[in-house]
Structures are given as structure tokens and as C-alpha cells.
Amino acid sequence: MSVKSYDDSEPLIIGLDLGTSSAKACLFDSFGKILWETSTSYEVLRPYPGWREQDAEWWWQATIHLLRELAEQSKLSGKILKGLSITHQRLTFVPVNEQMHPIYNAILWNDIRCSAEVEYAKQTIGENEIYRKTGVAPGYWSIYKILWLKNNFPDIYERTYKFLLLSDYVCFKLTKRLVTTQSAAILTGALDIHSLREWCIDLILALGLSEEKLVEDIMPSGSIIGEVSEEVSYATSLPKGIPVITAAGDQPCGALGAGLTREGQVAVNGGTSCTSEIISETIPRLDNPRSYYLEIAPTGKYVLETTIPSGGSDLMRWFKENFGASLVEEARKVGEDVWSYIYNQAKNSAPGSKGVILVPYFNSAGPPYWDLNTGGIIIGLTTDVKYYDIVRAIIEGLAFEVKRDIRLLEEGARVKIDEILMYGGSSRSDVWNQIFSDVVGSRIRVPETPETTALGAAICAAVGSGIYNSWEEAVKNMVKMKQCYLPDINNNRIYEKLFEECYLTIYDRVRENIMKAISLVR
User: Is 2-247 a CATH 3.30.70.3090 domain?
Assistant: First the structure.
């Protein structure tokens, strides 16, 4: 928890970020400065390979705990607190009955159990047709996991009153009003991209599902849902009547909090997943379903997004848990942050990591492959390779993949990317940012606050509560930049050769064998 003083007459807002394995609540002033913050964690259940689940009640208990701690420690009053907004892990949903009680564990965004349903949709409806209507080609999106539930647990499907996304569930608990947002709804894979407040009924019916089981009210970001009820006020110590305002999913909020406001910028998240986002004033090209998918920014603009399901935090956690015990101990002995210490090991390795190249498809592959049942690749291992070469290869591999993704985004939006806005956990590492700049060959800027996702939610609350009259005004006042990284020309030359002559061809050459091997043992 951090504590900073504030003027008891200035307007304040809360940004609540309910992530994959942890949640954070931040109290911001109207200039984007964090005054108080607190966090908690919850478990991710893995009952079978490829499955990821949670008890939805954990989200609500985390929300109560964080809001109560924030309210009590900062002595909030209704006079200065103008609103709160929630950003969240996307795609994740929970089936509830008419009493709004969960009847099955929530199925998370990175759960990949629905490969058969995805293939069914491609064969019966068509990948291109679905993409043109929804902006999202068949993949691990919510609607295909709902179909999986119907196919495998028909009793759960029949008993479900509504399938609620994470923010739908928590906001209902706060206000007793059931709504979803455009940004949350689009990555169910079932929103009508041409009419952003309606579901794509044709697709839903073609899959044999019922649109009545989805939330009817689809709202834009920055809209007041309702107010904190008396019951919630008692549980959280928040003042009764505080407006609860729609935000967006974690990546669009993170990109907004990182300053993504114009064409030509790409926001890259170095968190659990590694997403790249650019904005477009109009619907972009939808002729290649394997290039990117669409999102909706809090500002209402279209977002083109690519994803690497296993991003920096995920792969570094894999490395730490399996190979990093000695590094953890060393970090503790010298009193350094464990993650910083591990990332900094990459400095001991030269560009190219002694010939080790990593393809980061450890938990499925994003564009242009969209393989749910596949794996990552590490090539070039010799007895001369050290642990720090592997650390650097992880960062370089993710940067190579982002470079590939940026090409897809540039082609779709017909723009040239001239700047990367880096946010998320890995962006706190200088070595991470510099390697990315060297690989991609672009300037990188990093925002002052590391909590860009919560800040993006707070910007939604600031606009929705009337503190600012426009998104542009809110971002100008609330987003501050901390540091800039420029590519090293010599390093960039090395990486260009590795990218063009090695990286781009690796997966295509072994893809079939990887998928066959995995299918034989699962």
C-alpha cells in the first residue's frame, strides 16, 4: 500500500483492476497521480491441461476487501469521491441462475478447452463470414466456450439464466443493475461490429445458442451504470451513492492509461499476455481473419489488436519457477526485487542470445496462426548457453513476435507505426524496454505510472463523472510520460537479420510436428 497526501477538496476517482491472478484498487486525483493503492491475489484453478477456472465469488470478495481498505485508510468522503470504474480480464465469464448466483466455475480468458467448437464454427459458418460480422475470427473467445458448456454440460447450459463477464458480475453486485460494455462484449466473439449495442444474432443462432442468455444492455465506456447501494456501502465503507461508471477490458484501459490516442502509435502490454493495440477512426480491413481482431477503445474508437497468450510475466514466471531458484535466493541476499534481478540477467548475454531463439507459443499461438493446441519452441541450445541467455531469448522472442504483429497491424490500418507505448509489469525493466526498442527499431515511451490499467479505468470514471468533458482532455491531464528508449543501430541490424532469416520461418517448419506430438500425449 502507498500513501500520498491530498487536498480534501479535490475530486478523486477509483480505478479497480480485476486481473487474472490478482486485483488492485487505486485512488487517483484528477491529474492521474496515485494517492492510495492496495492489492490482493486469488487462485487460478487448472483442473485439466488447458483449462483455467476461478470461483467468481473470489472477484467479489477481492472487490469488497480492496474498496474497504482503500476507503478506510484514505478516509474518503462522498464530497470528493466522484466515481469508480472497473477494468478486468477479458473473455472470462461465469454462468449464473436467476438469483444471480454462479452455478459453475468461471471459465477464464486463457482457457483453451474449446478447440472442437472453434473448428465446428469454421466448418459450418465460415471463418471469413464470422470475422466480417464480429471483427473476431473463431478462437478461444467466450461464445465458443459457452458452446463447449452446452456440448459437455448441457444441464449447466439449460440452467443458466445469463452468462456474465467479470465486470458484469461485479458491477451488478455493486449497483443491482445488469449491463455489459461494448469493449467487454466484443471479445465474447458475438458482438455485431457494425452495430455496437447489439449481439450478432445470426452467429449465435447458427451455433445453436440462445441470445437471451447474454446481457441485453450493452453500454459504451464512460457511462453511469448506477450507484453504490446502501448494502455495499456498509460492506466496503464507501460513501453511499457513489456513481459506478463503465470502463473497458484491461488491455484497452491499459492502452488508454499508457497514452494511446492517435494513429501511428502502438501500445504493447508486457503483462501475463503480450498484446499490441493500435487505434483506427473507422472499421479497418476485415479481409484477413488471421491478422488481428477488433476491440473497442474506451473512447469508442476501433482498436486493432494482436495477442501473444504467454507474455513477459507468464514466461518469466515459467522460467523462475522451473529454473530460477538460485536467482531468487541471490536477489533476496542482495535485497533486490526478484523480478528486476531476473530481467537484469539478460544484460550478461549479447544480442542474439548465443544463437538461442524462442518462439513464445507456450499457451497457444495468436495471429497469424491461431493454434490452440500447440507449444513454444526453443532452438539453438548448446552446452555454452547459460541461464542468462535463456532470459534474454525470452525477451527477444516476445519482441520478435511483436514485430511480426506490428506488420499485420500496419497493413490492416494502412498506417506506419512510429512509436511504441510500453506498459504492464515488464515495462518496469530497462533491459526489457531497450531490447524491444532494438528489435522493433522504434522509439519506446513508458508512462510515469506503472498502473496504467487502473489509470485507464480511472480516466473512464473521470469522464463519466464529469470531471473532464472529453477523453482528450482527460488523457492530456492524467497521463504523464516517464522515460524514452531509442534503438541501438548496431543491435537493430543484428536483430533484423535474425528476424527475417530465422525467426519468421521457424514455426512454419515445425508446426505440424509440434501439434501432432501434443495431440498424442493429451
Answer: no
